[in-house]
Amino acid sequence: MTDIHQESTFDVVIIGAGPVGENVADRAVQGGLSAAIVERELVGGECSYWACMPTKALLRDAAAIRAARALPAAGQAVIGELDPAAVLARRDRFTSNWDDSGQVDWLDQAGITLVRGHGRITGTRTVTVTHPDGATTSVRARHAVVIATGSSAHLPPVPGLADVAPWTSREAAAVKEVPQRLAIIGGGVVGSEMATAFSALGSRVTLVSQTRLLPGVEPFASEHVATALRTAGVSLHLGVDATGARRDDSGTVHLTLSDGTAVEADEVLVATGRTPNTKDLGLDHLGLTPGDWLAVDDALAVLDDTGRPIDGGWLYAAGDVTKRALLTHHGKYQARALGDALAARARGENPDLGTWGRHAVTADESAVTQVIFTDPEVAAVGLSAEAAIAAGRKVRVVDHDLGAVAGAALHADDYRGQARMVIDDNSNTLIGFTAVGPDVSELLHAATVAITGEVPLDRLWHAVPAYPTISEIWLRLLETDGRDR
């Protein structure tokens, strides 16, 4: 049943039908509960239509060509240049041309009720939905309401910027025509990935960032990506701000930078962080500030300003709105734990919230995983060296040149990359891992298992990597650690 217009009651009501909301609902239903999910846009959310899937589709063709050209015989077989129209057409297939009927069908098959419209909390366990036709419906929850509304692009207060109709990640992911000149404000993940994508698609890209590129990862990874972007023709302006913007009568955008540089572009993409989608959810009725991130406890119950669960604990949140880890896969991890926990409570059971417990979200604190699909890729899990030291951990850092590994040398001529282990000296376990280089994303899960499993390094010695693969980097890192101690 979808698009209900009559008052209804369910065990769980979720606001937001992105991957996080879908997973909460699915796990709750699998646990024997009834669930309704409220969505004002497309079922599948940001990840399916404006983030993970379309952006990776924009990046993949160019990555395949780079991989072929890194080998002499395969490179000779690559004839011609990248066809932007074909790239965009493949992107459109992955977004189903922004038609969510397939995901709506999945909700039906999973036994989840979809309520189309904008949901606001109007009372205890009550969500009032304003439908596209203007009608309203009250949907009530017996057990819990879950906020899974995600986040949106943050627009910085640069004079004139709002008036030039800037792109956000949404417009970049859904682009219909590749601009000749693209300016990007922000050097984080979105800015760096889109600089990689659009330079490969033929744009002359200028990227402006207050900080170094990718400030959230190890500096060596940032340097590798910056070098590759410059080689690809991207103009990087790091350590400066955009101080003004205007669009002239010809449509050209003029940016002024804090160092006096003038930048001209056909479009400007703003990639300066995210803001939570909590402005119009009725949170003020609960004593919360609309537009703020939602503080949650270990059970993902939303907390009031005294640090206590709202009204005894019927309101929960998962995904970006909690600001725990703004990554789809971590939001889905939270959602699985939360959906299962809600079902357990409904059966009268106590959720397992101990460290690494069945319903805990411990990985959000100690093993956040991320792949940045730039050229080269960056893969990271756990703590960087800087973050570990700032947290008061006694650590040692082990680095190794990825290009010196036989499997990497076979993988691509002139393979360039680096890997780092961050090791806790007291426990002799891995607490952080970062790699940068072509196709390093496939190294990440081994590091994730080692960190979450708290595997001692002397046990890792017995995890023998196959030869010749890039995974041999694990042996080289362990050997380096042994020599350095």
Helix and strand layout, with pairings?
Layout: E1 8-15, H1 19-30, E2 35-39, H2 45-49, H3 52-69, H4 72-77, H5 84-94, H6 101-110, E3 113-116, E4 118-123, E5 126-130, E6 136-147, E7 151-153, H7 169-173, E8 181-185, H8 189-200, E9 204-209, H9 219-231, E10 235-238, E11 242-247, E12 253-257, E13 262-265, E14 267-270, E15 274-276, E16 315-317, H10 328-346, H11 363-366, E17 369-372, E18 377-382, H12 385-390, E19 395-401, H13 406-411, E20 418-424, E21 429-437, H14 444-452, H15 457-460, H16 473-484
Parallel strand pairs: 1-2, 1-6, 2-3, 6-16, 8-9, 8-14, 9-10
Antiparallel strand pairs: 4-5, 5-6, 7-15, 11-12, 12-13, 17-18, 18-21, 19-20, 20-21
Helix pairs in contact: 1-10, 3-5, 3-8
Binding site for NAD(+): 186-193, 273
Pfam families: Pyr_redox_2, Pyr_redox_dim
Binding site for FAD: 56, 119, 149-151, 320
Question: Your description of this structure?
Answer:
- This protein is 31% helix and 24% strand.
- It is built from 16 helices and 21 strands.
- It folds into three domains: 8-44 and 100-152 and 276-363, FAD/NAD(P)-binding domain (3-Layer(bba) Sandwich), CATH 3.50.50.60; 161-272, FAD/NAD(P)-binding domain; 376-484, FAD/NAD-linked reductase, C-terminal dimerisation domain (Enolase-like, domain 1).
- It has 485 residues and is α/β, with parallel strands linked by helices.
- The protein has helices at 19-30, 45-49, 52-69, 72-77, 84-94, 101-110, 169-173, 189-200, 219-231, 328-346, 363-366, 385-390, 406-411, 444-452, 457-460, 473-484, and strands at 8-15, 35-39, 113-116, 118-123, 126-130, 136-147, 151-153, 181-185, 204-209, 235-238, 242-247, 253-257, 262-265, 267-270, 274-276, 315-317, 369-372, 377-382, 395-401, 418-424, 429-437.
- The strands form five sheets. Strands 1, 2, 3, 4, 5, 6 and 16 form a seven-stranded mixed sheet that branches. Strands 17-18-21-20-19 form a five-stranded antiparallel sheet, sandwiched between helices.
- It is globular and about 65 Å long.
